[in-house]
Specification:
Layout: H1 2-24, H2 35-42, H3 57-69, H4 73-85, H5 94-118, H6 124-170, H7 175-185, H8 190-203, H9 208-218, H10 222-237, H11 241-270, H12 272-296
Length: 300
């Protein structure tokens, strides 16, 4: 009876492992590069990413096949937002970055489980899935950090860029000419790269209001969204754009000054507790000999 029970448990475990794999590979899916990657390859643009690594390419292509089976709209939306906000210098698509997350989760989970099995630990079945979750979350966290840092850099540069565009437009240039001048002077700047995308969309026939709204969607900054809304409203009302940009730049500086005052006011409260603790420590150190004497009865 015990032998039959062990065989039944083994069959259930085998079915639980084999069935998902069989369902995943039931219908073959070719892991083709994304459309923008095929265009770049046709134009002779060579990239150097993990997908071009001969040792990692087979595993990553397998992960790319699995991503076509994975229905996770929330994760895909978050990946698209973070890739856009980070600038995506390597040109990863959502499918490719999701494949990196899956491969990282699989490798870390398997390695952790094997180490625990070799060490004779019974926690392998629990630690393996936990480490797989960590392996999946680490690339997501790295991408989110890069997107946040780039958004902060864009937020710092925003008022100065608005001033320059407003001054150039006041001298007689159009918005497109002013933006092209900034991009030509400093093409590696994060905000100028986003302006370059805006100009490319306008060049392909997208209305300027829609191109600016797309910019606000790519970079999750409340200040940028308010500026785009003010610019589009000014365009519909016929207000001079240079005046609106100058007012928005002044407002951003005012908000930054108010935020600096709040931080300076809260800094005094935050430093109060460490100062009190340091004072108590100094008092204890200075008077500790007297306290020890008093406890030993030899103070006088």
């Amino acid at each position: 009876m015990t032998v039959l029970l062990q065989i039944l448990v083994s069959l259930i475990v085998f079915a639980g492992v084999f069935a998902p794999i069989y369902v995943v590979f039931l219908y073959p899916v070719q892991a083709e590069p994304p459309v923008h990657r095929r265009f770049a390859a046709a134009l002779g643009d060579k990239r150097t990413t993990v997908f071009e690594n001969p040792a990692l390419a087979p595993v990553l292509n397998l992960g790319l096949v699995l991503t076509h089976r994975l229905n996770a709209p929330g994760i895909r939306t978050r990946l698209r937002q973070d890739l856009d906000a980070s600038g995506n210098p390597a040109g990863y698509s959502v499918q490719e970055y999701l494949a990196i997350c899956l491969v990282s989760a699989s490798l870390l989970g398997v390695v952790a489980a094997l180490l625990l099995v070799v060490m004779g630990s019974a926690a392998a079945l629990l630690i393996g899935p936990v480490m797989a979750g960590v392996g999946f979350a680490v690339p997501l966290a790295a991408l989110r950090g890069a997107a946040t840092r780039r958004s902060l850099r864009i937020g710092k540069q925003l008022p100065y860029t608005l001033d320059l565009i407003a001054l150039t437009m006041a001298a007689g240039s159009t918005f497109t000419e002013a933006a092209e001048t900034l991009i030509r002077d400093e093409p590696e700047d994060d905000l100028n790269q986003e302006l370059s995308i805006v100009l490319s969309e306008i060049g392909f026939g997208t209305p300027r209001s829609s191109a600016l709204e797309n910019l606000a969607k790519r970079i999750p900054l409340e200040s940028l969204r308010s500026i785009v809304g003010a610019v589009n409203q000014a365009e519909s009302l016929g207000t001079p754009l240079s005046t609106i940009l100058k007012l928005q730049a002044d407002m951003l500086r005012m908000q930054r000054g108010v935020q600096a005052e709040k931080l300076s006011a809260s800094a005094s409260l935050r430093i109060l507790l460490p100062s009190v603790m340091i004072l108590i420590a100094v008092v204890v150190i200075v008077f500790s000999p007297l306290i020890i004497r008093g406890l030993q009865g030899g103070l006088f």
